Fold this protein.
Amino acid sequence: MTPLVNPITLFFASIFTSNILLSNFLGMCSFISISKEWKSSFGLGMAVTVVMTITTAINWLVLEYVIVPLGLEYLSFIVFIVVIAATVQVLEMVIDRASPALYMSLGIFLPLITVNCAILGAILFMQIRDYNFIQSIAFGAGSGFGWWLAILLLAAIRERIDKNPVPAGLKGAGITMITIGFMAMAFIGFSGMIAVQ
């Protein structure tokens, strides 16, 4: 167990100082692809946050009450991915009913949340660091909010960049990667305040 880390500290540290996207670079593919417009980024960030929070909690329960007692640790990755896939499927149906426009704008990236390495990474960090249930929820929610914050910031910056002149050699992927690098440096600048190990 890791009783020394306060869940509130863990929540804020996983948003800023240990941002799963900008510190660990997990979940970059959908981050770069969807962040072209703010509205889609907002929707995907919200979906990733919900999935990350729910799946971290469910997978902690499954790990502690099914996998470990039955000695099935070798199946943990498969079980984690099945829980993620089921959660994403339910969320996809809810978004399709509640907001068809958002569902259409997210397109293929909504079902691809299932294989978003940031979500599996948060669950594996929770397992490796031996967080308790409350710490796991705080870490999952904080990691989701951190991912959401990063994609919203990148979308806002990219929309602003599109309206300004950019040298021909940097247009597209070049300026996006430079922007992500500066964002990562800015978030790492918080690392002296709170760190999560």
